[in-house]
Automatic annotation (TrEMBL):
PROSITE patterns per the UniProt record, alphabetical: RENAL_DIPEPTIDASE_2 (PS51365)
Organism: Lichenicoccus roseus
Name of the molecule in the record: Membrane dipeptidase
Any matching Pfam family: Peptidase_M19
Superkingdom of origin organism: Bacteria
Single GO MF descriptor: metallodipeptidase activity
Amino acid sequence: MTDIHALHRSILTLDSHIDIPWPGSAADDPFTDTAKRRVDLPKMLRGSLRAGCFAAYIPQGPRDPAGYEAASARALAMLDAIAAMGSSRDGIASRLCTDSDAIEAAFADGAIAIVPAVENGHAIGEDLGVLAQLRARGARYMTMTHNGHNALADSAIPRRDLADAETLHGGLSPLGREAIAEMNRLGMLVDVSHLSRQSMLQAAMHSRTPVVATHSCVRALCDHPRNLDDTQLDALRDTEGLIQITAMPSFLRRKPDAASASVKDFVDHLDYVVQRIGVAHVGISSDFDGGGAIAGWSNAAESEAVTAELVSRSYGHTEISAFWGGNFLRLLRQADAVAEQG
């Protein structure tokens, strides 16, 4: 275990999807170790989790001007709260990082890298100009939908309470295609988690930058509409994309057994992707504070358990480094390269 501990501490560990509380809530201080949060900066230090993509989560609401205005305001406020995490306080050094070089520099300096993101394209409503505002606040990816269709695309899980039919656009809407082009131009990764199968496949083909599913699992192992099937995994391989396996119990094991989901189940999904499409196309996420938590990895302080399970399955330093962040950093660099091309 000492060798595993040393290995884990030597790796730039990045969790690609963590939620934050709504600013102003009782659990909103990330510098305080509290049972109300599965991820805060003290827990990240204890678990040697060196970087996290913190998501401004926007619940799906009405697709009308008032709904769009409220969603955009919430996204911008949450991104401001995420940016405020990138400072030093109470003996903890953290740093707002918006590119791979900055994340690697923070790791070298012993600081935690805070990477902003947005969950749900409802945040931009029907105004592509909002994307530039999100990017200016550091957002490195946007999840195209959440549960419920929006103006950009169909969701994997329609919202009956919002009168969603099974499909709204037949995949991406024309605006959704324009949004992907604008995200490519701005250097924002296209997150295909939560998209319907058709939307996801269209996004993978349409985007000039490889797409990423920042928090999804494998449908062949757990038949959940949020998981990716073999055709979708193959599309990621063919377009140099990435799936970040996530610690959401119901994505790893179907109910009623989901409550017993464990780190072993988590790595089973990662193994499947490796065997199907290769080491370069899979990584690690938790969805902590958004529903993620499994036996053995219930909060950021227990992150070493994932490394231990990978070691037990004969993965080496190079592969584990790729899973824990190397693959994700590669996509960030590709997004920056595409943005530089214009």
